[in-house]
Amino acid sequence: MIDQEVLLKSAFNGNRRELSRLLTHLEKGMKLNLPEDAPPRKSTVLGITGPPGVGKSTLIGRIINYWKLKNQNVAVLAIDPSSPRSGGALLGDRVRMDSADSGDLVFVRSLSTGGQPGGISSSLISMIDLLSYCGWENIIIETVGAGQSEIKIVAFADKILLIDGPDRGDIIQAEKAGIIELADVVVINKSDLPGSAKAAESIRSSLSFGDIKSSPEVILVSADKNDGVEEMMNLIENCDSPDWRERIKIKERLISLWDSRLLASPELNRIIGNLQTGSISLDDALDELAR
Ligand SMILES: Nc1nc2c(ncn2[C@@H]2O[C@H](COP(=O)(O)OP(=O)(O)OP(=O)(O)O)[C@@H](O)[C@H]2O)c(=O)[nH]1
Ligand SMILES: [Mg+2]
Q: What is the pLDDT of residues 253-267, one digit of tens each?
């Protein structure tokens, strides 16, 4: 048993090792008990998602520097899908972000989606609350657009950046998964490469033909050259999410938590067995799981 209160006090006072330990416990499903007089969450959560390799981590490095220059701190939760990825991308992430992961203003943490049966979403809220309680003003959640559930983890963020590259084909997947509806700003990264302006144009026009009520801004950025980052940050910091988008986010959060509860149920295997033998109906199964 760990003494959460002791760890909390220490993390609150700036001890990163204890903060890390607490995050590990939350990742494994521990319930967070903040003191009763803890102030409401005040940090801003920025969700960043997009297909593999579009430059999310590189861009996050730039965003970190942007906030550092303003003397604001930032904690990054980088969520890796549980399925193994090729080429040690995780390590690559660390190395790329390490340039920024220095000093007291930055905290970077990788999370795995395979940590607990219900996935990451149920513990994500506690992690955000913990980081906020410990004084982290900006929190970034990075997810890879590898599966719908991973992408939609960003629905737990206040503001959402969808990143794509010059290869317009990639974003089709995001469109299918309904991520575009959630995005406050769409970033076409790698603007230093040919094809990026065309990709941005094509996304803009497909958005204006869609039934999206107020389309997100589409902007060109080069994380590599640090070009357009300031403009992007101005956009994201000053945009107001319309009501309908807030509602979609809340709905996605509910669906995520619903899913993770179902998957974490100790009765799940037994109920699946009963469904298989036909001894109960799907409706019965849902009723039982809801109980
Ligand atoms: N030309 C160019 N290359 C870039 C730019 N930004 C990132 N890259 C390169 O794109 C590759 C992938 O960058 P990452 O930042 O790891 O991309 P990611 O989206 O975090 O990748 P995953 O986490 O694996 O999904 C690296 O080789 C980067 O150097 C850019 O603006 N221009
Ligand atoms: Mg990355």
A: 998 888 888 888 899
